Amino acid sequence: MHHKPIYRLYETNVKRIVDVTPRMRRVTLGGEDLAHFARDRPGQWVKLFFDNGADGRAFSIGAWRPEECEMDVNFVVHGHGLAGRWLETAKVGSIVQIAGPRSNFSHIPGKQLFLLGDETAISAISAILEGMQQAERTVVVLEASTPEAVQPLPAYDGAQVSWIISDRQPGVLLAEYAKTLTVNPDTSQVWVACEATAARELRCAFGRIGFDRSALHVSGYWKCGEIEHVDQDSDY
Fold it and tell me: Which family does the UniProt entry place this protein in (predicted)?
């Protein structure tokens, strides 16, 4: 019988809240309990439980500063769902419990990495880039809904970064652009996180050209028309 792992809950509170762009708000969480927290690979995620609530929501870990017992979590500002409503009223001192970290992703040395995502994937992609070796060739493609959502990524000499500004259905242009990339299942690794319908389309497209789940990591972080989406197909 398969049992889901049990993760410890870390008690934290909000230390700072900063608007990174008009579309993204950074919440810094901290507390002595995080002295026991260990992030062992880039691109990991945690579940956040707000104000001692019983329902958690998944978020990528942004910056992690173990010496200060602080973690940054970036929220896309939209006002919907449990996390969106909490963000509107969150203040310094608000209580947040953290469970995790979790992730099944790690870069395969020697393979060219392709990182594809939308605004919700910026934190994870930034963390992955920070953990890469500078000599590794990496292609990053990000879709944003407005030019104001574009933000700098970690400085990385090996990365080729492209931003797509789209006023169409979320994920459509990202999927179209991704299909034009020159990728090879033998020499490439693909990581995708975006709207769920586009994520499923890209999983199928890369699967058709020979990618299996050892080199293809896809997750639908959210879905149009659903307030609280749970991705049953996620590779994480």
Answer: Belongs to the SIP oxidoreductase family.
